[in-house]
């Protein structure tokens, strides 16, 4: 595995052009001040309630509330790199939305033999209830979180790759917004020295996007955020986004359906709802259609949805396009639907359901990252180079027993960014999750959420696995 691409320093250890001003500032900051600022940030985040729940703590078996560690050394992206990444994100999400619409309508991509039919029809994320259902503007994933990594090339340059598409209920945008506010509070002098593209208008863009996909003929749409409740791991974000958009945060019990129309219970009587930004999975939305034991959703919601009287963001059935078994086909989707070459590349991927791919993966388990196709949050995966012999052999047994449940990829050495850890400033591996909004137009704020693997050598950036976050700066020209 070749050395990591260092975001801040070139091969000669000199700062890259877009980091030079920051490096000069960092060089004169006392370690004691940086440590004090980190402690200040932790106190403020805890006071505001910026925590996430971890289910089933391995020691106690109980859920715990944790802060996501915040690192005050930002990840900086120059304007020209962001422009290309943004174009690639617009292209990719546009093609994915076309794909989902096609799957639930004409299935032209299946007829063309590009995506195997069984990969769709036997997929746990396929919702036959959505066949033939029209959604506003044919958009299914209104809010997408696309995970991007950078790996080093032989010549020392770095290339961006899409690692994963999150099209159902992607989380993390509240940390992007709060990290920026924190950096501006702790280090206002830095913002005077850099032209950093703003992100604070994300809630305005989100509300604009949601309103733009209201049912036909609704001029002043009523938007709500639907949460599973305060015990959900991302509840802070649900409440935060509702508050920032100035809309109601509701639970399933706050809603009811009458004559295929969704209403919210209020002290002044029922109020009609037009758009629901739902932060719970398909299975829990409507006990009359999906899980009958769900108390989190609203009976009759899907009937109102199919009748075109309410828009759900993201749409039911969107998960068919972010399943890891479908990921390898996205470059072909871009060519099929848009007639374009992909701007952002996939990570090369082995599909273990294919006999030749499976044999290669079994022969090289110690070198690869192997993932469950339905897995998330860093769970259900093997990072071969970091695994013990026993872990590899245990995983081998799972893989042989159910090969179609796994994909495998080369172990990319994710790029590193200087990070303030207990021993001082040291490189740590990072990724980036930009948030792409699809409504009347496709738009996003510059940057996204940078996640950082705080353990030395670790490639797992997920907060549930001990990762932290950084502010992401896109420099303006």
Tell me how many strands there are: 23
Overall pLDDT metric? 92
Q: Indicate the overall shape.
A: globular
Number of domains: 2
- The Cα radius of gyration reads 23 Å
Q: Output the structural class.
A: alpha+beta
Uncertain runs with pLDDT below 50, 5 residues or more?
Answer: 55-62
Helix content: 25-40%
Question: Describe the biggest sheet?
Answer: 5 strands, mixed
Cα-to-Cα separation, first versus last residue: 35 Å
Going across the major beta sheet, what is the strand order? 3-23-22-19-18
Explained architecture:
The protein has 13 helices and 23 strands. By secondary structure, it is an alpha+beta fold. It has two domains: 1-196 and 323-347 and 412-477, no CATH class; 216-309, Rossmann fold (3-Layer(aba) Sandwich). The strands form six sheets. Strands 3-23-22-19-18 form a five-stranded mixed beta sheet. A five-stranded mixed beta sheet has the order 13-5-4-20-21. Helix 3 crosses helix 11. Pfam families: CP_ATPgrasp_2. Residues 74-453 form the Circularly permuted ATP-grasp type domain. It comes from Roseateles toxinivorans.
SSE inventory with pairings:
Elements: H1 20-27, H2 31-48, E1 51-54, E2 64-67, E3 70-77, H3 79-103, H4 108-111, H5 117-121, E4 143-152, E5 158-166, H6 173-186, H7 188-193, H8 202-212, E6 223-226, H9 235-245, E7 248-250, E8 255-258, E9 261-264, E10 271-272, E11 275-278, H10 301-306, E12 311-313, H11 330-338, E13 345-346, E14 350-351, H12 355-363, E15 368-372, E16 381-383, H13 389-401, E17 406-410, E18 416-421, E19 424-433, E20 435-438, E21 442-443, E22 449-453, E23 467-474
Parallel strand pairs: 3-23, 5-13, 6-7, 6-11, 11-12
Antiparallel strand pairs: 1-2, 4-5, 4-20, 8-9, 9-10, 14-17, 15-16, 15-17, 18-19, 19-22, 20-21, 22-23
Helix pairs in contact: 3-11
């Amino acid at each position: 595995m070749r050395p990591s691409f260092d975001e801040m320093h070139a091969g000669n250890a000199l700062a890259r052009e877009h980091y030079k001003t920051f490096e000069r500032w960092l060089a004169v900051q006392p370690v004691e001040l940086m440590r004090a600022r980190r402690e200040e940030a932790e106190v403020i985040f805890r006071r505001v309630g910026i925590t996430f729940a971890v289910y089933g703590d391995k020691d106690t078996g109980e859920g715990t509330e944790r802060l996501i560690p915040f690192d005050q050394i930002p990840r900086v992206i120059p304007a020209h790199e962001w422009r290309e990444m943004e174009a690639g994100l617009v292209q990719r999400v546009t093609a994915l939305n076309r794909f989902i619409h096609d799957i639930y309508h004409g299935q032209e991509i299946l007829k063309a033999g590009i995506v195997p039919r069984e990969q769709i029809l036997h997929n746990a994320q396929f919702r036959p209830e959505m066949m033939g259902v029209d959604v506003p503007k044919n958009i299914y994933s209104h809010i997408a979180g696309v995970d991007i990594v950078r790996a080093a090339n032989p010549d020392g340059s770095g290339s961006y790759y899409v690692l994963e598409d999150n099209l159902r209920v992607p989380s993390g945008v509240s940390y992007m917004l709060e990290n920026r506010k924190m950096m501006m509070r702790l280090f206002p002098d830095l913002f005077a020295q850099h032209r950093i593209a703003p992100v604070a208008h994300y809630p305005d863009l989100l509300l604009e996007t949601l309103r733009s996909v209201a049912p036909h003929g609704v001029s002043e749409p009523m938007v709500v955020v639907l949460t599973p409740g305060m015990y959900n791991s991302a509840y802070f974000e649900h409440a935060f986004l509702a508050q920032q958009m100035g809309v109601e945060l509701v639970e399933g019990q706050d809603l009811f359906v009458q004559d295929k129309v969704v209403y919210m219970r209020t002290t002044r009587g029922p109020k009609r709802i037009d758009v629901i930004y739902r932060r719970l999975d398909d299975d829990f939305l409507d006990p009359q259609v999906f899980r009958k034991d769900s108390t989190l959703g609203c009976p009759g919601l899907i009937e109102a949805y199919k009748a075109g009287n309410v828009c759900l963001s993201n749409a039911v059935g969107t998960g068919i396009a972010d399943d890891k078994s479908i990921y390898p086909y996205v470059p072909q989707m871009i060519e099929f639907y848009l007639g374009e070459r992909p701007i952002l590349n996939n990570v090369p991927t082995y599909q273990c359901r294919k006999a030749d791919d499976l044999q290669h993966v079994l022969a090289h388990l110690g070198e690869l990252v192997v993932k469950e196709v339905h897995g998330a949050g860093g769970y259900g995966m093997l990072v071969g180079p970091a695994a013990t012999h026993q872990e590899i052999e245990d995983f081998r047994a799972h893989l042989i027993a159910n090969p179609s449940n796994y994909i495998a990829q080369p172990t990319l050495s994710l790029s590193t960014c200087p990070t303030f850890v207990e021993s001082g400033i040291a490189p740590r591996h990072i990724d980036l999750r930009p948030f792409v909004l699809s409504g009347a137009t496709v738009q996003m704020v510059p940057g996204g959420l940078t996640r950082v693997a705080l353990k030395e050598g670790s490639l797992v950036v997920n907060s549930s696995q001990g990762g932290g976050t950084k502010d992401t700066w896109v420099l303006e020209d």
